[in-house]
Amino acid sequence: MMQRCLEPELMNGDAQVQAYAAADFSSGDSATVEGVQQLIDRTSPLPPEPLVVDLGCGPGNITLRLAELFPHARIIGIDGAEAMLVLARQRAQRQSLEISFLCLTLQEVLQGTLLGKADLVVSNSLLHHLHQPDLLWKVTRGLAAPGCRVFHRDLRRPASSAEVQQLLLKHLPSAPQVLQQDFAASLAAAFEPQEVTAELRTVGLDQLAVAAEDDRYLVVSGLVDS
To answer: Under CATH, which number does the domain 14-224 receive?
Structure first.
């Protein structure tokens, strides 16, 4: 079984920022937003003017879609890389979407004013970047208002380096080199479902479900009761 290999937590390099801004992640983004909608459909509607927080929002791919899906919500995108947020703000402005983008680390979120106020907490491809993965679960629990919906979607670590290469050839055969390198590094840095389940139990979020999705993702979803 392949051991986890850490990668940098933030994407601030110009080449990375531009490559991610230009890349087509629409299928994965759609899967995340559809998963959020399905979670709400099987639980209960959000409050009339909910607070929705997108953690590790990057250039705003998911954040903008959430703003369109929930037009009456207060939408906040949070990322530690200001270079990514510059693009996110530009995109929101072009689409006339009112979104607050905040440059904060997860540690700073835990010390901020949003604690206990979120009705929906979302992340897409954030967990594998973290050197302290329990931070995501502590922040999720800290942000959550009673009944908060949670939807985190991330990569799942393959069993071997050979499987990493197979996934690379299958999903990014003609992508720019920087994206191919990042994808391989991200797969190696990702978690297995049982590891996430153990982390959730440690922080008291064992009511959340962890499920494998297709050949490379895992999803953590559910309600935070208190």
So the answer is: 3.40.50.150
